[in-house]
Amino acid sequence: MTEPQSTLWIRRFQPRPTAPFRLVCLPRAGGSATFFAGLPMLLGPEVEVLGVQYPGRQDRRGEPCVESMAELTGAVVEELLPWTDRPLALFGHSLGAVLAFEVARGLTGAGHVPAALFVSGRRAPSRQRPEYAHRLDDDGLLREIRRLSGTDDRVFADEELVRMVLPAICADFRIVENYRYEPGPPLDCPLTVFTGTDDPKVSADEAAAWREHTTDTFALHSLPGGHFFLTAHQERVAEEVTKGLPPLPVRYRDPARRP
Length: 259
Known about the structure:
By secondary structure, the protein is an alpha/beta fold.
C-alpha cells in the first residue's frame, strides 16, 4: 500500500513507516503544526507524529480562516481518512482539545475508533462557560493572551509579528467560544487529560468532567502552570502519552517491544 503524504492540512514529522501508531496533534488557538515538530524526539519509534495545520497561518496565511468547529472538524476528519491504515491517536491543546474530541467522534462514526484521545488545557465539552475574547479589539485580545500567561513577552515587541498572528487567534477564539456540545454516545477509547494547576480557563472539576466522555480508561494529570503549561512539561506529557496508548496491535508485537 502506498504511504500517504503530507498535505496543506497534515504535516508528517520524521516519517516512521514501521511505527504501529500515529499521533495526530491539533494546535491551540493561533497555533500551528510546527509546535509539535520536536515531539517525535520525545516519543519512541512506535509513534509517528502528524501535525494539523489550520488555514490562516504560516504557509497557509493567505487562506481564509475556518468559521466554525463543525467546518473544521469535517475538514480534519476527511484529511485523516487516508492515514487510518494504522491506528490513530489524537492529541489537542485548548481549541485543539475540543477539536480532537469532535474529530474522534467523526472518525468513530466513519468506522475508525481512535486508539486513544489526549486532551490538554480545556474543560470537558459538556461544561460550558460564557466566553467573549473573540469580540475584543486588538488591545483587548493582547491583554487576554497575556492573562493566560502563555506567550513570551518578547513577541509583543514585534508589532509586525503581532499583526500577523492576531487575525488567526481571533478567528480561532471565535470557533472555540461559539462551540456548543451536542450530547451523544461517549467515546470507546482511552482518554487522558492534562491540565495546568493555575489555568484560569479550566477548574479541577471541569477537567475531571472529561470522564463522562468515554467508556474506556480515564486518566487526569495536573501539572504546574497556567493555560500554556504544556510548553514547560513536554517530556512529562510525552511520557504519559506513551503510557496512555493501548497495547500494540498483534502484528507489531515482538519480544523487543513493550507488551
